[in-house]
Amino acid sequence: MEIIIQPTAEAATSVAARLIARLLREKPNAVLGLATGSTPLLLYRELIALKLDWRKVTTFNLDEYVGLDAKHPQSYHSFMWENLFRHVNIAKKNVHIPDGMTKDIPKFCATYEKQIRAAGGIDLQVLGIGTDGHIGFNEPSSSLASRTRIKTLTQQTRKDNARFFGSEAAVPHHCITMGIGTIMEARQNLLLAFGPKKARAIAAAVEGPITAMNPASVLQLHPVTKVCLDTAAAARLKRADYYRWVYENKPEWQQI
After folding, report:
1. Distance between CA atoms of 239 and 237, rounded to whole angstroms?
2. Is 139 labeled as catalytic in the residue annotation?
3. Whether 75 contacts 102, CB under 8 Å
4. pTM here?
5. Catalytic member of 99, 113, 123, 132
6. 256: pLDDT confidence band, cut at 50, 70 and 90?
7. Of residues 123, 139, 185, 230, which has the active-site annotation?
8. Are residues 218 and 184 in contact, defined by beta-carbon separation less than 8 angstroms?
9. How far is CA 130 from the centre of its chain?
């Protein structure tokens, strides 16, 4: 796990964007796993500005709310097309987002896993982190070996996401999410976290024990995980100075 601390969210996002841009230039048919929510918005804006070639890129989104159709303004289908896909030259057939309106959720989830494998697996998975340490919608106590499935959202997650829906009562209770085991099979994971509200979860994920009560902590076991933080999100890290020193003193061939 490499911890990259930058002064601002914009600076941390720039590092993340350069990583993705390098991947797409080296592997035009790369498979990306993508996240939603407020955290990756800066990243998607920067990727759009870079004017990369997305024609051969395949994407798989982490999650979607159960009960929201693709046209619902708060669906992750709408989010992704509004904030990224309609601004780049990606082929619609290469975009995969869980179907919140599927009539057979277990069958859909099994098919989603097969589609990821058929695409060759995910080269780079973009992740955010919840205030309770969740990744995707894998809430605390999720199995660290879990696969794509239905999950019940915690009260905290519904409270955190109420700002998007206008009220907590309007937030769906269930979602379809990639599992932690699915996320761990990506060849590279890229976790973004900004602001003081994420500091506690980040400290537990990076420097705490590996536990299902902080699902992001499992990334300590992943061979290639980069965590891009602003100063506020890194505020509770005990070894923050060391992480900065490591990043600033990389050999030239490791620099981003």
Report:
1. 6
2. yes
3. no
4. 0.95
5. 132
6. confident
7. 139
8. yes
9. 10
Contact yes or no for 236/200 (Cβ under 8 A): yes
Residue with tokens 């660290």: 144
Can you read off the two tokens belonging to residue 166?
A: 């206008």
Q: How far apart are CA 133 and CA 176, in angstroms?
A: 18
How far apart, in Å, are the Cα atoms of 139 and each of 104, 105, 116? Answer: 22, 18, 22
Mean pLDDT of 103-122: 98
pLDDT digits (tens, 9 = 90+) for 75-85: 999 999 999 99
Q: Residue 104 corresponds to which tokens in the numbers above?
A: 């057979």
Per the annotation, the verdict on 63 as an active-site residue is yes
Which residues share a beta bridge with 191? 127, 227
Active site residue 134: yes
SS3 195: coil
Residue from 134, 160, 185, 230 carrying the catalytic annotation: 134
- Token pair 């695409």: residue: 119
CA distance 106 to 154: 21
Report the half-sphere exposure of 175 (CA within 13 A, side-chain side). Answer: 24
> What topology is assigned to 2-248 in CATH?
Rossmann fold (3.40.50)
Distance CA 194, CA 93 (A): 32
Taking residue 122's Cβ as centre, other Cβ atoms within 10 Å add up to 25
Residue type, 81: W
For the beta carbon of residue 40, count every other beta carbon within 10 angstroms. 23
Whole-number pLDDT of residue 157: 87
